[in-house]
Protein: Paramecium surface antigen repeat-containing protein
Amino acid sequence: MKSIIILLVTLISLNLIYSQACVGLSCAVEGGKCTYDVYPQNIFSVSVPGRNDNEMYCQSGYYCNLIDLDNDGYGVCAKLGELGDACPSAYKVDPSEGTTSGYAYPGASGCQMGMVCYEGSSESPYTCQYVQYAMLGEECDSNYQCAYPLECVGEVCQLQNQTQQTLNQCNDDVECPASKFCSYKNSPSTCVDRIAVGGTCSGTECTANAVCTEEGICRAIYSSPVGEVCLSTFETCDISQDIFCNAGICQKIQPDVTSSNCSDPLFAGCGDIEQCTCESDGFTGKCQSMFYATPSQCKTSTLEFLSCLVTNNCGTVFNGVYNPIAPDSCAVKYCSANICNMLGDCGQKYVNTCNVDPLLATICSSSSYVTFSIALLFIIAIIYLI
Structure:
C-alpha cells in the first residue's frame, strides 16, 4: 500500500548494510562539483544511502543541478529555491497533466522539499510552488492547488463531472473526500468510509493510522511483533521493540557487537541497519547504526500524528495524491505540532549523508530537529507515499 505531507513519495526502502569498505563523506559547497542528490522522502523508511568514492553530494540547503553541467561534465551545487523563487525551466511540471508528487523533492525541482517548479501561465516565470494539496471539498484559489484531476470551482476543489459528485460516484480515491475511498464493489463505483484497524482491505482503503498488510487486513502502524509478515518497508513492525522488516518478516535488529575494524577484509560485516563509516584517519571503519535513536518516542509521536489526520479527516499519506507538506494543507492546518514532534523524535542514530535538512523545514524550526533521513510513503505517500 504505497503511493508526503510528504509531502512529502519515491519510497526509500529500509536497507541492510554489509560493507567491508568504510564510507567517508565530503560535502560539496555552492558552485562545487556534484554527481547526485540524496534526500529523505519516506517517513516510514530509515534511509541508508549507498556511496562510493566517485559520488559527490551537496551540503544541506543545496541540490545538484544536473541540467547545467560544468566543463568536466559534473553537476553543480545550487541553492534550493524557496516559495516564489525562480527555478530551472527544465524541471517544470504541469499539475493539469497528472499527479506531481514524484517531482516534489529538490533533485527534481530545484526547490525546497514539497514544492515543484511551476509556471502559473504562459506569461509568468517558473517559480517554486506548493501544488495539489487540497482534496475534494477543501478550499482553493486555483486549480493547481487541488489534487489532480480536481478543479477549483467556487473556491472549493470539485470534480469536473458535477453529476458524478452529486451521486457520490468515483473512478479513483482522489475523487472522494479524504475520509473515504473509491470502492469498486458496486457498479458504478462509489465513495465509502475508509476501513478502520482490523477490517479487510486490498490496497489504500485503510484509515491514515493503518496500512493494508499482505494478508489483506488493516494493521495499526508499528504494531506487528517478531515473526509476523510485513511489507517491504516497515510500517507494521513495532519499532519500539527494535524490530524491522527483513525479507518480508518482522525481525529483531542484530547489531554488530564487536569493536573490530569493519574495513578489514577479514571482517564479516556490519550488523542489521548499520553502515561501515570511516574514522578520522580515512581508512579505519566503524559500524554505525542507522536506526532511529529513540524508536519508542518515534512510534508514539508518529501514531499521534496519524491519529490527528484521522480525527480531522485529512488525506491519508499512503495513496500518493496528497501533498501534506504544503502550509495550507489539512495536515499542516490541524496537525503541524504533531508533524514537528514526529520529525524531532524520529532522528537516526547516525547519518552519513550531506543533506540532513528537516523534511518539513517550512513548517518547523530546524533547530528543533535531530539529524534524520526520513521522508511519508508517508509524507509524502506524508509522505510521498508514494
Q: What stands out?
A: The radius of gyration is 21 Å. The chain has a mean pLDDT of 77.
